[in-house]
Specification:
Length: 271
Amino acid sequence: MPTPPPLPSKAPNSTPKAAKAPGDGKLEPQKPLVPFGPPPPPEVWSPEQIREAAAECSNLLSGQPIEFEALPPIREGSCGAPAPLKVEAFAREPALEIRPAAIMTCKMTAALNEWIEKVVQPRAKELLHANIIHISNVASYHCRHRYNDPLQRISNHAYAGALDISEFLTAKGERINVLEHWPLDDERARFLKDIHKGACEIFGTTLGPEANEAHKNHFHLDAQTRRTPFCDGVKDKTSKESLEAPPPAPQPKSATSQNAATPAGQRRKKR
């Protein structure tokens, strides 16, 4: 039977190791993850910031047909706006109401007014044969991260710079619902797709049912300043689509084009 190898012997005069202090040799606890976004600003807006925001409001909205209430500055940690508005309606004939009223910045309000005037109402008259008199607001100002995920960047809703819309109502009482009617092949679906495409040319960000599952039942519109629009997750989607479109068929030499002018509407404002 083979002899087992001898056990290693301790070195002579070996000194026992000192006891470890509590925590020695252990991993330090991980620091909590910090959400993306700018550092928290001061707890209050400065008088200069409020004056600048008020001046922007006057410049963007003076004489526009918008019914709103000027609110005090909002500050909740990183969230808020120095000159928010509670927007109730775009007071044309007939008026287009936002239900419930939306809390937004003046910049977002001006972009929404442009979209309604240049895109929404013209397409509604052509395709639905009636004006839109009500849009359903499912989210305006809300202090949160994107998708309510603390690891995401701060949402533009947190700066009162965004609006989520789920439904439109015509003067005839017809409901145009994003979730129900986007997938169809009729005038309601065409209306939704046309005004979505028009929004991509006005807003910094436009998201809808083709963006992701989170937006299958509403449009997300925000006025974030971008070098190129961000449309359904694609920067400058409208330009990309035009580049990929087939070339137009050649026209006869006698064909002429006409340019339609958009008449300026009456404007008024209620504070």
